[in-house]
Amino acid sequence: MFQQAELAKLTETAKAELNWKWRGWWARTSQLAPDGDWRQWLYIAGRGAGKTRGGAEWVREQVKAGVGRIHLIAPTAGDARDVMVEGDSGVLSVCWPGDKDTKGNVIGRPLYEPSKRRITWENGAMATLFSAEEPERLRGPQCGAIWADELAAWKNAQSTWDMAMFGLRLGTDPRAIVTTTPKPVPLVRALMKDPGSVITRGSTYDNAANLAAPFLQSIRDRYEGTRLGRQEINAELLDDVPGALWTDAMFRHGIIPDAQRIVVAVDPSGADGNPESGADEIGIIVAAKLIDGTFAILEDATCNLSPSGWGRRAVDRYKTHGAALIVAERNFGGAMVESVIRTADRDANIKLVTASKGKAVRAEPVAALYEQGRVAHAPGLERLEAQMLQMTLTGYVGDGSPDRLDAAVWAITELMAGSSYSLDNIF
After folding, report:
1. Domain residue ranges in the chain
2. 4-232 in CATH: which number?
3. Which helix (H) or strand (E) holds 120?
4. What is the CA radius of gyration of the chain?
5. Do residues 334 and 415 touch, judged by C-beta distance below 8 A?
6. How far is CA 167 from CA 63, 68, 126, 144, in A?
7. How do the pLDDT tens digits run along the chain, 427 residues long?
């Protein structure tokens, strides 16, 4: 593959010819956009597999086909600029002055205006840059195509994706491409199960012809056969965290029988109601002990709201489900937690609990119930399940705080009280 210094010496005609050679390679690989009726194309591949080049080529094809507004979304603003636009495989690298659309009209090489976060083609087509650090910037702008890069690394993945999807509404067939190395984050798992998704997979080795031999040998020697290698080279979505208390096979779904007792559990945090502040969410879980003596998680109402907001939300779930109790962890400002809930409902039945043991110790008895097949899950608990899969004997290995998991453990623990299961030394 040509280096930037060598590329700069070429004439525009030579650059066009070189781009066509690269494009021939791209079209022969699995990066070719699939046929069919799909909403989002997930190109899930290892490091150096050509994901960025694939995304950039797809954006160019959208412009050639007449799409006038495109959104480019990266983990950070710097990533959008350095990788998606100016990078060696970014949008600018696949375009040139003589480029034409499908009707033969010149669209040229786009003009990049960093201060305006946009690139514009001669035919008026425009791609605007966004980052997952600021999902609210996607509120309002609309487009006919989206390129979402490294979605598994997005900080505010769900809220950013939701805002992006509301804007994907121009034209007769608005679509998105997601280029990412996989991680077992809830959004990636949900999109892979979405009937509107089509998935293309690739490994680092698929692009070996365009990668330096020392690099390939180095990653083979250091990472081949390891968990990190399976994820970053072979693009496997790994849920089998070593030492995890939960596995995917332990989640039981289906019809949930009538409940004999329901509780709402709250795991408070320092959230201020601003999703972009980076504060952990407030875990709110509704759970039940069933008439057959087993247990169930009925709802995940976790949120990132102000104290008055999450207090009202917890009370709402308490009333809607006819719960007997709101159980809340007192460690994070016990008096404040009770005051917040009482402000929403002065008569709510509240129990404050204190955690003196680690999260893994508290979670073990609950995980044992799952292993015995004694806990069922209602639909829509994928984000809770993702946190459970990353709780190990030595602690939580996921990003941020396991807010949903903590609330679920408090809820099931409360429901276990008075049963045949021992609660000794849980706290």
Report:
1. 4-232, 248-416
2. 3.40.50.300
3. strand 118-120
4. 25
5. no
6. 18, 14, 15, 8
7. 334 444 444 444 444 444 544 444 444 343 468 888 899 999 999 998 899 999 999 999 999 999 999 999 999 999 999 999 999 999 999 998 889 988 999 999 999 999 999 999 999 999 999 999 999 999 989 999 999 999 999 988 989 999 999 999 999 999 999 999 988 788 898 899 899 999 999 899 888 888 899 998 888 888 887 777 888 888 887 766 778 899 888 999 988 989 999 999 999 875 554 555 556 789 999 999 999 999 999 999 999 999 999 999 999 999 999 999 999 988 655 578 899 999 999 999 999 988 767 888 889 999 999 999 999 999 889 889 989 988 888 888 877 889 999 999 999 999 998 554 444 433 3
Q: Which residues of 377-404 are buried (b: 16+ CB within 10 A; e: fewer)?
A: bbeebebbbbbbbbbbeeebebeebbbb
- Name which of 119, 126, 131 is nearest 78 in CA terms: 131
Q: What is the DSSP string of 239-272?
A: ---TTBS--GGG-EES----EEEEEEEEE-----
Q: Using an 8 Å Cβ cutoff, are 276 and 130 in contact?
A: no
The total number of residues shown for the chain amounts to: 427
What are the residues whose beta carbons fall under 8 Å from the beta carbon of 110, sequence distance 6 or more?
91, 92, 95, 119, 120, 121, 125, 127
Measured between alpha carbons, how far is residue 246 from residues 117, 176, 353 in Å?
43, 33, 24
Amino acid at 255: I
Class at the top of the CATH hierarchy for domain 248-416: alpha beta
